[in-house]
Amino acid sequence: MQAMQRLVSFTIPTSIVIVILLPFISSSQEHEKTYKSHTSSNKHSIHTYNHKLHFEIILHGLLLWASMGFLMPIGILIIRMSNTAQCRRRLKIMFYIHASLQLLSLLLATAGAIMSLKHFENSFNNVHQRMGLTLYGAIWLQAVIGFLRPHRGSRGRSVWFFVHWLMGTAVSILGIINVYTGLHSYHKKTSRSIKFWTMIFTGEISFIAFLYLFQDKWDYILKQGVVLGNEPVQPTTDKEISPPDKQKDSSIESC
């Protein structure tokens, strides 16, 4: 009987303690589950954010590479090659190719600028961001200058040509430099190697520069070994050389 009383006296307080502590135990377990779920969710969110940011950085770089590092230099090369064109139709085609490439370059650069301002932290405390901001304004100014082209023979044509040529050359050179600074910023941000992409871009720009310097000398090089008929080559005099404008007009008209 006494044993029964001891068991009852021990069981009742124990039951009371368990009933009191049960909500706290349950709440602690639920809190632990919620914390683990929240931590897992944060890790997934951070991983997704980093992956998305990395993709946007690559896309931004590709847009500006295509714009400043390819289309714009190719457009300048095309208009440079038009100086040796001997046909009005060919000259007109090359001009429209130049204008189309520069317009496409402008659109791609604008898309890259919008992406940069929308998704990236732009404190403008480094060379790449400052140069990029300058280029975004300069490329639009160059486009406006191009659309305001005076007619050939007008009074302001020479001034316009000099400004358009100087601005286009400066924008192209700064754009190429900014591609290199962008690659350096990508390496600094992600710690990934950029040697392969630097070599590819350097080879591409070197090839375009070689064509730019070489193309206008090609006809001259070919004519060095040409002798008309069986007569020896006679030195030319000033009277035999017609003005460049007259030669260019006659060659275009003959075509």
TrEMBL record:
<keyword id="KW-0349">Heme</keyword>
<dbReference type="GO" id="GO:0140575">
    <property type="term" value="F:transmembrane monodehydroascorbate reductase activity"/>
</dbReference>
<protein>
    <submittedName>
        <fullName>Cytochrome b561 domain-containing protein</fullName>
    </submittedName>
</protein>
<keyword id="KW-0812">Transmembrane</keyword>
<feature type="region of interest" description="Disordered">
    <location>
        <begin position="233"/>
        <end position="255"/>
    </location>
</feature>
<keyword id="KW-0479">Metal-binding</keyword>
<feature type="transmembrane region" description="Helical">
    <location>
        <begin position="57"/>
        <end position="81"/>
    </location>
</feature>
<dbReference type="InterPro" id="IPR006593">
    <property type="entry name" value="Cyt_b561/ferric_Rdtase_TM"/>
</dbReference>
<keyword id="KW-1133">Transmembrane helix</keyword>
<keyword id="KW-0813">Transport</keyword>
<feature type="transmembrane region" description="Helical">
    <location>
        <begin position="93"/>
        <end position="115"/>
    </location>
</feature>
<feature type="transmembrane region" description="Helical">
    <location>
        <begin position="7"/>
        <end position="25"/>
    </location>
</feature>
<dbReference type="GO" id="GO:0016020">
    <property type="term" value="C:membrane"/>
</dbReference>
<feature type="transmembrane region" description="Helical">
    <location>
        <begin position="160"/>
        <end position="182"/>
    </location>
</feature>
<dbReference type="Pfam" id="PF03188">
    <property type="entry name" value="Cytochrom_B561"/>
</dbReference>
<keyword id="KW-0249">Electron transport</keyword>
<feature type="domain" description="Cytochrome b561">
    <location>
        <begin position="21"/>
        <end position="222"/>
    </location>
</feature>
<keyword id="KW-0472">Membrane</keyword>
<keyword id="KW-0408">Iron</keyword>
<feature type="transmembrane region" description="Helical">
    <location>
        <begin position="194"/>
        <end position="214"/>
    </location>
</feature>
<feature type="compositionally biased region" description="Basic and acidic residues">
    <location>
        <begin position="237"/>
        <end position="255"/>
    </location>
</feature>
<dbReference type="InterPro" id="IPR045150">
    <property type="entry name" value="CYB561D1/2"/>
</dbReference>
<dbReference type="GO" id="GO:0046872">
    <property type="term" value="F:metal ion binding"/>
</dbReference>
<feature type="transmembrane region" description="Helical">
    <location>
        <begin position="127"/>
        <end position="148"/>
    </location>
</feature>
<dbReference type="GO" id="GO:0020037">
    <property type="term" value="F:heme binding"/>
</dbReference>
